[in-house]
Structures are given as C-alpha cells and as structure tokens.
Amino acid sequence: MINDVSKIITNVRTTTPLIHAITNYVTINDCANILLSYGASPAMAEAYDETYDFASISSALYINIGTLTKEQEQAIIMAVISAKNYNVPVVLDPVACGAIKRKMDVINRIFQLGKVDIIKGNLGEIKYLAGYESKSRGVDSIDDGNNSVEACESLALKYNCTVIATGAEDIVTDGKRTAIIKNGTKLLTLITGAGCMVGALTAATAAAEKDKFIAGIASVLAMNLAGEHAEKLTKAPGSFRVKLIDEIYNLKEEDFLKEGKVTWL
Amino acid sequence: MINDVSKIITNVRTTTPLIHAITNYVTINDCANILLSYGASPAMAEAYDETYDFASISSALYINIGTLTKEQEQAIIMAVISAKNYNVPVVLDPVACGAIKRKMDVINRIFQLGKVDIIKGNLGEIKYLAGYESKSRGVDSIDDGNNSVEACESLALKYNCTVIATGAEDIVTDGKRTAIIKNGTKLLTLITGAGCMVGALTAATAAAEKDKFIAGIASVLAMNLAGEHAEKLTKAPGSFRVKLIDEIYNLKEEDFLKEGKVTWL
Amino acid sequence: MINDVSKIITNVRTTTPLIHAITNYVTINDCANILLSYGASPAMAEAYDETYDFASISSALYINIGTLTKEQEQAIIMAVISAKNYNVPVVLDPVACGAIKRKMDVINRIFQLGKVDIIKGNLGEIKYLAGYESKSRGVDSIDDGNNSVEACESLALKYNCTVIATGAEDIVTDGKRTAIIKNGTKLLTLITGAGCMVGALTAATAAAEKDKFIAGIASVLAMNLAGEHAEKLTKAPGSFRVKLIDEIYNLKEEDFLKEGKVTWL
C-alpha cells in the first residue's frame, strides 16, 4: 500500500493535473503555491459565470467553504454540478461546518446536486458531519478524539466516499479500509491554511490516482513530511510557512517509504 | 502602566481569544498569520449570511474597510450590530476614509448602528475623521503631523473610544490619557499590511484587556518591537515580512519593559 | 534605448506613482508588495462604488481578470471609463482569455468603453487575442511559439497599444518597434503570480514613462533580472518568492545596462 502512496507524487509531476480550486481568500495564495510546488497546475476560477465551464475541463475540483460569499456559493454549486456531469473528482473541505449554521445549508446542497469523492476536514468538522458529538471553536477543532475512527468510517459509508480527518493524528478511511498517520508537527497549527493546503493537495492526488483512499493518504503524508522537514530548518511560523512550500517541492518518493508512519487498521 | 501593557501578550497566549476579522483581500493572510503568531485564534468569516452569528461567539471583532465589496459592507453592518448586542469589543480600521467618499458613508453607518471601542488608522485617516485638515494619498498618510495629538484626543472624546494613530511616531489616547510610542522601523512602510496587522493585533489585545487604552498601546508596541527585531535580521522587504511574523511569535513580556519607548502625556 | 529603460526605476522611486490595481485574489498581496518594493504606491480599490473615483486620482490602472466576480467586472468597467476620461494609463492582463468564454465578453467591453495602453499576457493569451492559433491550459500557456512576434505586432496594431507576451523569451512591441528579452529563470513558473506581478510593475513603469514600449521593456526586464538574482540565492519556490521581492527592492539602474539581454528587431 505505501508503495502505491509513494508513487503518486511522481504521477502528479509527470501529468501536471489541472486543479480547479474554489477556496477562501485567506489562504488562496498558499493553496496555489503549494499545488505548483507539488507539481500540479492550479486555477482559482470562482466567478459564477465561469465555474461550470472551468470545472468541466479540470482534472479535479477542490471546494473550500471558508469565506463563502454569495457568489462563491453560487459558483460552487455550478462547479459541483459540472464535476458530476463531466466525471471530475471532487474534494470538499467543510470549514467551520459545526460553528456556523449556514455552512450546513450549502454542504447539503452540494451533496444534493453534486458528488463528493473525498471529504477532508479537521476532526471536529468530520465528527459534526457524521452526527457525532464534537467540539469546535471558530475554524479550529478542539475535539478530544473520542470515537474518531468510528465517526470517520460512518461518514465515509454514509456518502460512499473517502474521509480525511486531520488532527494530532490523521485518519483516512473509505469506510472499509482505514489508516492512521502519525507524522507531522505542531508548527502546522501555528500558520493559517495548513488544512486548506492539505485539501488542495488532495485534489491533486485525487486527479492522479483512481483509488481515493490511497490518494487521501498521499496528500496528508506529503504535508506531514514536508512539515517535519521544514521544522528541522526553523521553529518560527513565518519562516516555517516559506520552508513548507520549499519542502513540498523537495519531496521524493523514498521519503514516503522511509519516513511514513502509517498504521493500517 | 507599562507593566499592564507587557502582561497582555501572556493573557492572549493563555486565553487564545477568537478574533473575527472582516478585512481586505490584500493582507487577509498576513492578518490571520500574525494573529496566530501572537497567540490568538483568527477567523475571517465575511459572508453576509454568517457574520451576525459569527460575531456573537467571538472574543473581539476587527473591521477593515480596505476592499469594501457590497457584500462586505452588508456583512460588516450585520457584524457590528451583533457585536453591540453581544457586547463584543470592536476595532475599526477606516482605511482610505479621506480618499474615497463612499468609505465615510459606511463608517457613518457603523457608528450609527454599532459601537466602536477602538479606532485605529494612520495619522491622515484619524485627522480626517476628527475633522482636522489632513493629507492622504491613496491608502497612505502623507500628513505633516500638525495638531496630531489634539486631533486624536478630540476623536476619542467624540466617539467615547480609544484612538490609535500610526505614523513615524504612534499616538494612543482615550481622550483623557495619551501615550506616544517611538519604537518601530521604516521597513514597516515597505510592506503592505503593517497597518492592517496592527489593527488585527489590537482586536486580540482588546479581547484580553478591559482597558482599551492599555490594549491599544500593547498592540502598537508589539508590532513596533517585532519590526525592530526583524530589522536586525534583514533590510529587504520580502524577507522582513517573513521575519516580522517570526518575531511576533518570539516576543516576550520583558521586551516590552526593556525596549518600549512610551511617553505618557 | 536601454538607457531609457534603465532610468525608469529611478523615475518610479522618485515620483512614487499611485497604482490602482483591480486584480485576482490569488496574488493580490504579491502585486501590492512588489509595487512597494519597486518604489510605487499600490492601492487595490475594487468595490463598484469606489473604482470610478479612485481611478481618476491614480497614476496608472492595472486590470487583471483572473478571479472575475460580478462586482469586479462592474468595478473594472467603471475604472476603465474613468481612466479614459481622466487620461490615466491602463494595463490589461487578459488572464485565461482563451480558456473561458466569459473572459472575452468582459475584455471586449473593456475595449469598447475604455482605452488600453498596454496588454500584458502570456504567449497563449496574446496569440488568442490576436486571432492566431494558440494553446493554453487553465491559466498557463503551453504554446509552441510559432508566429509569436507576428501575432504580438498584429495585436499591437489592432488596438494601437503596446503588447507584452511573456514566455521562455519575452516579446514587447508597439507594432512598429519590437524587442525580445532573453533574461529570466524557470523558477518564475514555479510560483503563482509572476505574470500578475509583471503586470502590476508595468502599471508603475507606464505611470513613469510616456513611451509605453520602453515602459513595457522596463517592467519585464525588472522582473527577469530580480528573478535571476533571486535564483542565485535559492532554488526552492517558497524561498524564491521571498527573495524575488527583496531583489526587486535591490535593483539598480546599472543592472539593466550590464545584465539586460534585449534584442531590438
């Protein structure tokens, strides 16, 4: 399995998938830059008049609902309908779904009209979506981690998709297969956008790999390993953010094989 | 007094206030990252459908009118009404209020329907709001500094709030007490967003400290000291911006006591 | 000629032109920071209620249609009308014009109601606008370069403006005079926004120099030289992006004279 995971970065660099991202204004630049460093080609079309057309020619679609203006909501709905019609993989990042009521209205509409291949959230968001008791504060999870795996698997089965829950340990599951990833660094919580960047990378891996469970592990592991490498160079968040992009660019297949701490449940 | 100022950074790091920021798209990422480095938890909800709910659960609200789309205007009005109803401290950054007529329309509406605890602008903006002759160019102040303290005090008394005017020297006043801060570096004018970041930090200090005059000094001083520390590491603006975030993270209580150049009028 | 090109950076630093930029949310921060590093004063007013007024007081206007929300479209139309009425130079960046049908609708409206002094695009975009066969993918050109100079000259004559086409080699032409610039580094394609930043810088040079052909060469060369200087310091994209801003700040007139590889056709 880890062999399949490790090969994806080469697949992405060889095929340069076109990633259509509709994402929040806070970290939109980070998402574009990390996709470029990873070897993908980002495009952030978000106008209502453009997303149906643009999603149809994309290799994968990343939807992040962090700063959800009215036009973004409309543009997202058009994009997910297009992705369904044109069979484009979709990654959904349900930012703050448990903190703000309106987020769930939009998420429900996405599931009603589109098709989601991977849901990537923090643990609080994933448990909330799965209908489990969860704790969030603003856009952050402060969940204690009870029943985490169970919640992820239940959500994966509910929507017939892969689920990624990020946290101190990361969980990836398609409901039947489950992996726990123990790499990473606390520095990733000291910059904004680590979660968004994982989501964007997941769209790239989903474009390059049919098995979305494997794709999900590959993106989470890429971020965690790059974070560990960057942490060796600096402990301060401003510099860490810069080095993180560098280290995504420097990742090699063997890093995944040698350093990946993946437990297969 | 300086003892009270110095303690705020520890208070923020201990309590991790949730800062709701509605801000311009130019420096929204910088504002989020500097809040994280300072120890606060940023959330940039700006959709009209979300800001009333989100402001109500926040520790403080930062309003920056730099890139004021129609939806942002509406979202800001909802947020300030919510902040008033739920007693959430509000920091207003009246970007370019003297340069663009429409900005004053929105600012007047904010004062009509909301409650502002701290106004933080550059000297040109503050003097304009106070009804004094002032000089601005685009988003920058080119004011000569005549009657600066008088203008700040007058504005503070007019709106019963604390006023921060940034410039070569920074002024903080609640109309009765006034402080002049002589720290900082010219490099802060060579990057975009130094003013916005001070505003965001002010929301964090306002969340942690009841006395908004003290809170205002704490945020201005934090930015100035981090700027001085970063300047020791680099003189070029791209690198300076990165180090500035690092040095906010590295700030210690004793830095304020040892290095703060605050004159109490 | 290269003497005229080299002097522009000093002119900008002396006059600090006020650059009004309406640009995409992905790289809006980079555009503002590179303008500051170059010596200009950026202002990113993009609200429909503000752009007519703001364009009228600006030294030059930069229009980038990368993330074209409905309000941005309306704001752009108001800005270009204002620029025409007040004789403010306009630089147009026709991002993805060949990939998304709606972009051309907006571009046609800009030419109908406004006046464009410089069109700056990648080669695929420029050839598409000129009516030549071209190849793009998302926001990137993958054009082979056939008939490039001919296409640029034809477009310049069609709209009576200067045309900049970026690529492995960069072309600048006003239809009668044409220059090929062979500086630069591949690292500029590994970060997002290199093209946008050239566009923003072009607005600064267009504000400082009447001859827009010379202005176009100056901005392209500035970016390429800064890129070469940054590449000497780092090969990784995250760090490169930081150093690029530093090296724009460090550029000297003699760098243009000594290092510029400009072929005058």
The CATH level-2 architecture of chain A is identified as: 3-Layer(aba) Sandwich
The parts of chain A where pLDDT drops under 50 for at least 5 residues are none
The span between the termini of chain A is: 12 Å
Shape of chain A: globular
User: What oligomeric state do these chains adopt?
Assistant: homotrimer
Note the beta-strand portion of chain A: 15-25%
CATH superfamily of chain A: Ribokinase
Catalytic activity (chains A, B, C): 5-(2-hydroxyethyl)-4-methylthiazole + ATP = 4-methyl-5-(2-phosphooxyethyl)-thiazole + ADP + H(+)
Family (chains A, B, C): Belongs to the Thz kinase family.
Pathway (chains A, B, C): Cofactor biosynthesis; thiamine diphosphate biosynthesis; 4-methyl-5-(2-phosphoethyl)-thiazole from 5-(2-hydroxyethyl)-4-methylthiazole: step 1/1
Enzyme class (chains A, B, C): transferase
Brief summary:
Chain A has 265 residues and is α/β, with parallel strands linked by helices.
Written description of the protein model:
The first copy, chain A, has 265 residues and is an alpha/beta fold. Chain A has a single domain, classed as Ribokinase (UDP-N-acetylmuramoyl-L-alanine:D-glutamate ligase), CATH 3.40.1190.20. In chain A, 52% of the residues lie in helices and 16% in strands. Chain A is built from eleven helices and eleven strands. Chain A has helices at residues 2-15, 28-38, 51-56, 70-85, 101-113, 123-129, 148-159, 194-208, 212-233, 237-250, 253-259; strands at 18-22, 41-43, 60-64, 90-93, 118-122, 136-137, 140-141, 162-166, 170-173, 178-181, 262-264. In chain A, the strands form two sheets. A nine-stranded mixed beta sheet of chain A has the order 2-1-3-4-5-8-9-10-11, sandwiched between helices. A two-stranded antiparallel ribbon of chain A has the order 6-7. In chain A, a hairpin with a 4-residue loop joins strand 9 and strand 10 (178-181). In chain A, helix 1 packs across helix 9 (212-233), helix 1 (2-15) packs antiparallel against helix 11 (253-259) and helix 9 (212-233) packs across helix 10. Chain A is globular. Chain A starts with a helix and ends with a strand. Chains in contact: A-B, A-C, B-C. The interface between A and B is medium-sized, with 35 and 34 residues. Chains A, B, C: ATP binds at residues 120, 166. Chains A, B, C: Belongs to the Thz kinase family. Chains A, B, C: Catalyzes the phosphorylation of the hydroxyl group of 4-methyl-5-beta-hydroxyethylthiazole (THZ). Chains A, B, C: One of its GO terms (biological process) is thiamine diphosphate biosynthetic process. Chains A, B, C: Its cofactor is Mg(2+).
